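Hi support team,

I'm filing this because I wasn't sure whether my run with magnesium ion finished correctly. The job status page said complete, but I'd like someone to confirm that the output block is well-formed before I use it downstream. Pasting the exact inputs I used:
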Amino acid sequence: MQSSIISAPTPGCATGRTLSDALAGLARKFAADRAIVASTLAGVPESRPCPDHPDREQPLDREKMLANVRLGVSAAPSYGLCPVCAQDRVRQKRIAAWTRRGVPARLAEAALENYDENASEYAAASKQIVRAYIASASSRLGDNNSTLIQGGFLLLAGPQGTGKSHLAAAALRALRPHVSTVCEDVRYLTHADLVLGLRTTYGGKKAGGTAEYIEELRDAPALVVDEFGLSSGGADEAPAIQTILAARHDARRPTIIVSNETLPALHRALGYRVADRIAESCHVAVLLGESYRRR
Ligand SMILES: Nc1ncnc2c1ncn2[C@@H]1O[C@H](COP(=O)(O)OP(=O)(O)OP(=O)(O)O)[C@@H](O)[C@H]1O
Ligand SMILES: [Mg+2]
Ligand SMILES: [Zn+2]
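And here is everything the job wrote out:
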C-alpha cells in the first residue's frame, strides 16, 4: 500500500509533468527555430550597405530574424539600421516627445547650448538670466524630504525673432528631468492655444471639462505660455488664466511667460493682481535687437 501511495500520481505531479513537457517542447521549438535561422544565414553577409547612407553598413539582426521565425512571419535575412539611421531614429523619437508636449517642431531641439550668445548685445545677458532661472527652478526647497520646487516665473519679453521661444523651449528641456514624472509632464502652449482649448471644453459634452482643463494647466510640473497677450481677449479667458497663473505662483510651479508686449501692456494682459504677485518672484529677460530670422 505504501508503495502505491508513493507512486500514485498526485494532481501536483500531473501539473508538473505537463509543465516540464511544455518546457521541453518549447526548448525543441526554439532549437528548431535557431536551426532555421542558421541555415538561412549560410553564406549570407554579416552586413550590407545602407540604401540611404551607402558608405555605412547595416548589421545582420539575428535576434529579429529569430523573432520573425518564432512568429512565423518570415525566415529571410533581416538587417538593422546603419549607425546614421539609428542616430536619426533616436533623434526623431526625441523630437516627437517634445512636440507631444506642445513644443513647436522647429524648436524641438532648442537648447541653451545652441543659443548663440553673440546674436545681439542682449543675447548673452538673457541666456545668463535663463540659466539662473533654471538653476533656481530645479533646486528644491528645505531638506531632502521636501518635494517643493523652488519654482517661480520667468518672463521673456521683446520683439519678433529675438529668440524668446527658443529660450523658453530650452528652459523647459532643462527643467523636465527635475520636475516631470511618468504621469505628469511639462507643457508648452501659446496663449491662443490655451484660450482655444478652454473654449472646446464649453458646451458640457464632458462633465467637469472646463475645471479639468484649468487643473491640468494649473498642475503641469512646468508650463510655457508663448505669445502671451496676443489672443483675442474674450471675457471668459481672463479669470481662467488668472486662476491658473495665481495658483502656479502660490505653488511655486515653474512657469514661463513669453511675450511681444511691452511690460505695461503685459501687466494689463496678466491682470494687475496676478502681475503684482508674480513680480515678487519673477526672473525677467528683455530681448531687444534685430530678428535672428533675418540673418
Ligand atoms: N541667439 C540665438 N541663437 C540661435 N538661434 C536663435 C537665436 N535667436 C533666435 N534663434 C532662432 O531663430 C528663430 C526665431 O527665434 P524664436 O522663435 O525664438 O523668436 P521669438 O523671439 O520667439 O520670435 P516671435 O516673437 O516672433 O515669436 C528660431 O529658429 C530660433 O531657434
Ligand atoms: Mg516666439
Ligand atoms: Zn542609414
